[in-house]
Automatic annotation (TrEMBL), chain A:
Source organism (scientific name): Prosthecodimorpha hirschii
Record-annotated membrane-spanning stretches: none
Domain of life from the UniProt record: Bacteria
Keywords: ATP-binding, Cell membrane, Membrane, Nucleotide-binding, Sulfate transport, Translocase, Transport
Name assigned to this protein: Sulfate ABC transporter ATP-binding protein
Gene Ontology cellular component list: ATP-binding cassette (ABC) transporter complex
Organism taxonomic ancestry: Bacteria, Pseudomonadati, Pseudomonadota, Alphaproteobacteria, Hyphomicrobiales
UniProtKB/TrEMBL annotation, chain B:
Annotated transmembrane regions: 27-50, 70-96, 108-134, 146-169, 255-275
Keywords: Cell inner membrane, Cell membrane, Membrane, Sulfate transport, Transmembrane, Transmembrane helix, Transport
The protein's name: Sulfate transport system permease protein CysW
Species this protein is from: Prosthecodimorpha hirschii
CDD domains in UniProt: TM_PBP2
Protein role: Part of the ABC transporter complex CysAWTP (TC 3.A.1.6.1) involved in sulfate/thiosulfate import. Probably responsible for the translocation of the substrate across the membrane.
Membrane topology field: Multi-pass membrane protein
InterPro entries: CysW_permease (IPR011866), MetI-like (IPR000515), MetI-like_sf (IPR035906), Sulph_transpt2 (IPR005667)
């Protein structure tokens, strides 16, 4: 079932948490709401569930206006960061809760509930644990039970609030894969909140990046990583260095030095140039922006250098094993891919001239 | 556990050996604490029972054959049977409102709940006299309608409710605060009604804390003297509760009867203490911070 959100706003007293959000979630999609704390992502998710009352705006599940329906009739499955399992109930009782509280006329018989519970336990790979209590389960198992409980009522949409936030890194990765598999099997329209960009990029069909109660960008993981729409998205997703530059007569200047971008740009005035560590070409000092290597550290499979360009500006550069870069070396840097945001208030896309800018990147 | 105890002991012994003062100081402090406890708690308790049984079990038993004494016991049970359930409902409602909702005046409400603890019991009784007494604010109205509150059972119930209303709420607020609202929210998203959510989710989460609060509330409701004394009017056989009856008997030099009645109250206190200790020991994790009152 698709979700349409129109002009949704929410404030707590005088503090705005969401400013006029518009968003469409496609049917069967797995969508991530990604942002730093205070970005409004959880408020947005809880508003979709009906756990928060929006100050303005409407939410539709298909044709039906969900925002006019109270939470208990809205038909959402909600999974909480800290599981919120009922401690005094067994796993089976937890999962069957949603069915067992239905009005008598709509309540399935006990045997049918039991059957549904067992098939869900099978789905979440917890066969045989139906008589355990939550306290007897690991964190990862508890969250699986929580998901099974949410799915038991056959929700119109599935909402997960930082579902793996309370788990350690290894379990988190496992569950990520597991959630993806469950999604492929069930195809519930799913929205999940996370502050972990790796989780969002790996798991989601599309990612919504939020900051300060506004949507900064909506796109596939590739789109938000490769073509960030705003400086915030560029800085927030993946590693990057930002250079305070000036655009003048088609050239980009870092103070008095021209940045070798390899092509001219239109526009004028101060701007922000973003480059990811892996998109610097390292060469001789005369060949590019000259800088001094301040440190070289191990970073995953490769090495990563901090290079000072002078005037208090330094950038992070991935160096390949072919280059014997050491602390104290003078090197020259040339960005192979980059993105430029003119700083005239509007964080607009870069405009590399002489190029039909599909992504804004120089491939 | 045993290991760390031993370590503590060794550390303490080492300190004692090094300074020569540790052991002596410890012995003095423990002796002081035990002596104080014996003097102010154990001795009076023993005195109560010794006095009650001074003339044997028969005399003790005879004290309860007095119709006025029986009336006092019955009245205490009636007052408690109304006050405790009332505070149970109020305590849950207040704790629920305070911990699960945001509303203006919330911190004022929390402060007000503690008011009966900080106000002298005499004042707690007087407010009802000022409100419902013959010269009180609503006195003429009550008189015109033939209703009596002060110097009657309703006054005793009101005063007792007032004095004991913090117990349940104060036990539940920190507990429910700690548990948060996620369980209730989960139940709601699963389609449960408010009542179902309360009965099947909230109540099981708070039952031990609730029992603990009710226990303390009950002990205080039965034992309350000050506030009840002000509104009672001391009509024998009609408006005397057990504590009030004890005082009257004592003032009339009926020591055995007075202490026999007092021994019942003391026994109630002991039973409360045992149950309270049991709850703290068995379900300490489910009580608010495991702390006592």
């Amino acid at each position: 079932m698709e979700i349409q959100i129109r002009d949704l706003a929410k404030d707590y007293g005088t503090v705005p948490a969401l400013h006029s959000v518009d968003l469409d979630v496609k049917s069967g999609e797995l969508l991530a709401l990604l942002g730093p704390s205070g970005s409004g992502k959880t408020t947005l998710l809880r508003s979709i569930a009906g756990l928060e009352q929006a100050s303005r705006g409407k939410i539709f599940f298909g044709e039906e206006e969900a925002s006019a329906t109270p939470v208990r009739e809205r038909g959402v499955g909600f999974v909480f960061q800290h599981y919120a399992l009922f401690k005094h109930m067994t796993v089976a009782e937890n999962i069957g809760f949603g069915l067992s509280v239905r009005p008598r006329a709509k309540r399935p018989p006990k045997a049918a509930i039991r059957e549904r519970v067992l098939s869900l336990l099978d789905l979440v790979r917890l066969k045989g644990l139906e008589d355990r209590y939550p306290a007897q389960l690991s964190g990862g198992q508890r969250q699986r039970v929580a998901l099974a409980r949410a799915l038991a009522v056959d929700p119109k949409v599935l909402l997960l609030d930082e579902p793996f936030g309370a788990l350690d890194a290894k379990v988190r990765k496992e569950l990520r894969k597991w959630l993806r598999e469950i999604h492929e099997e069930t195809h519930y329209t799913t929205v999940f909140v996370t502050h972990d960009q790796e989780e969002a990029l790996e798991l989601a069909d599309r990612v919504v990046v939020l900051d300060k109660g506004r949507i900064e960008q909506v796109g596939t993981p590739d789109e938000v990583y490769d073509a960030p729409a705003t400086p915030f998205v560029f800085a927030f997703i993946g590693d990057s260095s930002e250079l305070p530059v000036t655009v003048d007569q088609g050239r980009v200047w870092l103070y008095d030095r021209a940045v070798p971008l390899g092509l001219d740009v239109v526009g004028h005035g101060p701007a922000r140039l973003f480059v990811r560590p892996q998109h610097w070409e390292v060469g001789a000092p005369a060949n590019g922006l000259a800088g001094v290597v301040r440190s070289v550290l191990r970073h995953g499979p490769g090495r990563r250098a901090e290079v000072e360009l002078g005037a208090g500006v330094s950038v992070t550069v991935d160096v390949s094993d072919d280059h014997a870069v050491r602390t104290g070396d003078r090197i020259g840097l040339k960005p192979s891919r980059w993105r430029l945001f003119l700083a005239d208030g509007q964080a607009v896309a870069p405009i590399p001239a002489r190029r039909p800018a599909a992504s804004g990147f120089r491939a | 556990m045993a290991m760390s105890d031993t370590d503590d002991w060794r550390a303490a012994a080492a300190t004692a050996g090094a300074t020569g003062e540790g052991f002596a100081a410890r012995a003095v402090l423990i002796a002081l604490a035990l002596g104080f406890l014996a003097l102010f708690l154990v001795l009076p308790l023993v005195a109560v029972f010794a006095e009650a049984f001074r003339n044997g079990v028969g005399a003790w038993w005879a004290a309860f054959q007095d119709p006025d004494g029986l009336a006092a016991i019955r009245l205490t049970l009636i007052v408690t049977a109304i006050a405790v359930p009332a505070n149970l409902v109020f305590g849950i409602a207040a704790a629920w409102a305070i911990t699960k909702f945001r509303f203006p005046g919330k911190s004022l409400l929390i402060t007000l709940i503690d008011l009966p603890f900080s106000v002298s019991p005499v004042v707690s009784g007087l407010v009802w006299v000022l409100l419902f007494g013959a010269q009180g604010l609503l006195g003429p109205f009550l008189k015109a309608n033939g209703l009596q509150i002060i110097f009657a059972v309703p006054g005793l119930v009101l005063a007792t409710i007032f004095v004991t209303f913090p117990f349940v709420a104060r036990e539940l607020i920190p507990l429910m605060e700690e548990q948060g609202t996620a369980d209730e929210e989960a139940a709601m998203t699963l389609g449960a009604s408010g009542l179902t959510t309360f009965v099947r989710v909230t109540l099981p989460n708070i039952k031990w804390g609730l029992l603990y609060g009710v226990l303390l509330c009950n002990a205080r409701a039965m034992g309350e003297f000050g506030a009840v004394s002000v509104v009672s009017g001391h009509v024998r056989g009609l408006t005397n509760t057990m504590p009030l009856h004890v005082e009257i008997l004592y003032n009339e030099y009926e020591f055995v009867a007075a202490f026999a009645m007092a021994s019942l109250l003391a026994a109630l206190a002991l039973v409360t203490l045992v149950l309270k200790t049991f709850l703290e020991w068995r379900y300490g994790g489910h009580l608010a911070g495991g702390r006592g009152h």
